[in-house]
């Protein structure tokens, strides 16, 4: 069966009689209804799917009051059902909900607030409904700016669901990348050894791979257009090494491409006080794409760009998106950003993240099979390996996330082998939730030890 490493690795096997037999009668009925109404493409997570009916803060709740600590979702980043977002949407919906072709203060006030979080070179913003649309738009802008069509991404990248963006998302499924795309290995700081690569540093090796990929594309008739990178390499396995993006972006620009930083997963303070993943690397992108956490559950996303990069597209193509930048999503986004800023959530993410990272490192020292702990802020990758090696232990990683699910804590797997535990605590976490998360992980690691 073809399909995404990420999606399939985390999936409930809805066509397995044995899997269905293990469900409650109510959940089995819901699964059958999903298959009938939604078709075969949709997936559920975990061997025992999570049935949720309510949420609050850092928790989801099942129909019988079951409590699940959310350490996975980055949509409700400031906490589920956040009252500030609920009230902003209610109030705006009660007054006006319309598109951006009418003069309104809301879209401009929020644009000022949002752009102030970026380096001054990134001075213009366009709004969309989703991160997929933002990346789709970014590719169009890049092509208009450069005149090229060749795009370089990482080997397990996920950038969205439109036709254009699926073509630059190697992990998205069985359709495959487009002929204008080359995928390079992610900068795996755990397994990379300079002595195996002529003494080159990880950053040099990654930049050389980017150069080779663009050169190959050009030789096939696809001149350089964009280097598109998730700035924490989320789907590749979470690699926060800050040395790697600067040299790669420099190579892309030298060859005539632009650098697009995909901040859909790491953005809005999830990586800590730097606020944006690219900022940790000391590099200013040409285009930045935003998505999921921006509206805390309300579909709203954006593309931020240098005005010089946007100029050709903007002058030649009159862009319009009915709901992108409309009144209600913008009100939600403004509420989210205001909460993050007023409550200092990015700074708190750094402090709490250091606490979690310290506990995870203690676990790594004591637990055979926990090969590596990587992360920054409230975004972690925990590598599960065969003890004493760097060999991925995918089966145990999947056992761990399902054991944690049964303990009421939700995480997932990522990376090319499904051997990386992808852990994303919400910005609403306190020390109580942090300790509960690490405690459940420690117990799951012990329970699955071989």
TrEMBL record:
SUPFAM superfamilies linked to this entry: PLP-dependent transferases
EC number(s) stated in the UniProt entry for this protein: 4.1.1.64
Molecular functions (GO terms): 2,2-dialkylglycine decarboxylase (pyruvate) activity; pyridoxal phosphate binding; transaminase activity
Pfam families (alphabetical): Aminotran_3 (PF00202)
Broad EC category: lyase
Keyword presence, Lyase: yes
Top-level taxonomic group: Bacteria
Keywords, alphabetical: Lyase, Pyridoxal phosphate
InterPro entries named in the record: Aminotrans_3 (IPR005814), Aminotrans_3_PPA_site (IPR049704), PyrdxlP-dep_Trfase (IPR015424), PyrdxlP-dep_Trfase_major (IPR015421), PyrdxlP-dep_Trfase_small (IPR015422)
Family of this protein: Belongs to the class-III pyridoxal-phosphate-dependent aminotransferase family.
PANTHER family xrefs: ALANINE--GLYOXYLATE AMINOTRANSFERASE 2-LIKE, PTHR45688
Protein name per its UniProtKB record: 2,2-dialkylglycine decarboxylase
Organism listed in the record: Corynebacterium provencense
Lineage summary: Bacteria, Bacillati, Actinomycetota, Actinomycetes, Mycobacteriales
């Amino acid at each position: 069966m073809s399909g995404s490493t990420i999606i399939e690795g985390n999936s409930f096997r809805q066509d397995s009689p044995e899997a269905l037999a293990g469900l409650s009668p109510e959940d089995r009925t819901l699964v059958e209804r999903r298959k009938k109404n939604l078709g075969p493409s949709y997936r559920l997570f975990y061997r025992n799917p999570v049935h949720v009916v309510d949420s609050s803060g850092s928790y989801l709740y099942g129909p019988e009051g079951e409590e699940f600590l959310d350490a996975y979702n980055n949509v409700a980043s400031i906490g589920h059902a956040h009252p500030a977002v609920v009230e902003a949407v209610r109030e705006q919906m009660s007054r006006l909900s319309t598109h951006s072709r009418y003069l309104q203060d809301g879209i401009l006030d929020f644009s000022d607030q949002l752009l102030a979080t970026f380096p001054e070179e990134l001075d213009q913003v366009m709004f969309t409904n989703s991160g997929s649309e933002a990346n789709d738009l970014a590719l169009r802008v890049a092509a208009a700016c450069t005149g090229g069509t060749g795009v370089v991404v990482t080997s397990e990248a996920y950038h969205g669901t439109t036709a254009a963006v699926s073509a630059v998302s190697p992990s998205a499924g069985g359709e495959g990348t487009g002929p204008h795309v080359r995928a390079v290995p992610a900068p795996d700081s755990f397994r990379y050894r300079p002595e195996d690569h002529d003494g080159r540093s990880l950053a040099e090796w990654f930049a050389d791979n980017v150069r080779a990929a663009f050169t190959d594309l050009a030789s096939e008739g696809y001149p350089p257009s964009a280097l598109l990178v998730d700035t924490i390499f989320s789907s590749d396995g979470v690699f926060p090494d800050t040395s790697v993006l600067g040299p790669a972006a420099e190579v892309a620009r030298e060859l005539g491409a632009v650098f697009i930083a995909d901040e859909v997963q790491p953005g809005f303070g999830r990586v800590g006080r730097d606020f944006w993943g690219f900022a940790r690397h000391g590099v200013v992108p040409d285009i930045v794409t935003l998505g999921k956490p921006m509206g805390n559950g309300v579909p709203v996303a954006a593309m931020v760009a240098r005005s010089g990069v946007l100029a050709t597209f903007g002058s030649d193509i009159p862009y319009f998106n009915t709901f992108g930048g409309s009144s209600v999503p913008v009100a939600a986004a403004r509420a989210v950003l205001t909460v993050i800023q007023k409550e200092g959530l990015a700074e708190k993410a750094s402090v709490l993240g250091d606490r979690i990272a310290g506990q995870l490192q203690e676990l790594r020292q004591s637990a055979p099979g926990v090969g590596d702990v990587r992360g920054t802020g409230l975004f972690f990758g925990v590598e599960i390996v065969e003890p004493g090696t760097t060999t991925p232990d995918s089966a145990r990683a999947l056992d761990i996330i399902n054991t944690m699910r049964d303990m009421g804590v939700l995480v997932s797997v990522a990376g090319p082998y499904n051997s990386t535990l992808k852990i994303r605590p919400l910005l609403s976490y306190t020390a109580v939730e942090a300790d509960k998360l690490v405690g459940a992980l420690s117990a799951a690691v012990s329970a699955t030890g071989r």
